[in-house]
Amino acid sequence: MSTAKQRPSRLAGLVRLLLLLGAVALAALSIGARTSDISEVFDHVRDSLLGSSQAQTASPGKWVQSGPTSIEPQQLASLDVARQDRSDDDYERAEFGDGWESTGDGCDTRDAILDRDLVEVTYENGSDCEVTDGTLHDPYTGTTIQGDLSESIQIDHIVSLSDAWYSGAEDWSAEKRESFANDLDNLVAVDASANMSKSDDSIAEWYTDWDPPSETAQCRYAAQYVDVLASYDLSVTSDDYKLLKKLETDCRDLA
Predict the structure, then answer these.
(1) Computed from CA positions of residues 236, 240, 242, 244, in that sequence, does the dihedral angle turn out positive or negative?
(2) What's the Cα-to-Cα distance from 124 to each of 100, 155, 166, 178, rounded to whole Å?
């Protein structure tokens, strides 16, 4: 059974803080300390513990650390800003193939992404690539997910297949669309619920609802989104382009 651990240290840290402050209060009262003295000790202990807790930030994850966190200006400038008529609603997942391509030895594109993005990975007995479980530091939520991966983790298309369809992929060959659906540069392992929430949204549609765990994660996503669009000569809406121009500035020189 899969388990999702969301910042497990926070609750434990608060409990430790309360217990320690309670112990300080009892000790102070037992020796007849003044209220002002007790308050000063409380503040010192609390600030020390909270400072230590804040310093222990969650890992950004392998994918966030694996690529650029700034948008390439030339790539962004090369994008065609176009109106996209989605009123026909003629997109179907089957237009991009039947699913994950096999990579041999019983493994597929999903296994390749899990192997790339997770840590502490284990494999099916006798396999060098069929991932059964591991640990994901999720780039979309900042949570840490461990255990059975079948339900808790999904593979997201950074530029969704539907978004690509209306941005130019409708005119591609079936072979090119299937290759796009399995392009490792357009895929990332993420929390399943976050992926379902993102659904087929373009970047401007999704960003209004996304609460990125860090500026680094946000900018890594934006940089990769632009890279995929530019690599496949896909267009963007005016809303997408306005947001990407803002992120180009916001993410510039990100440490």
Answers:
(1) negative
(2) 18, 19, 38, 27
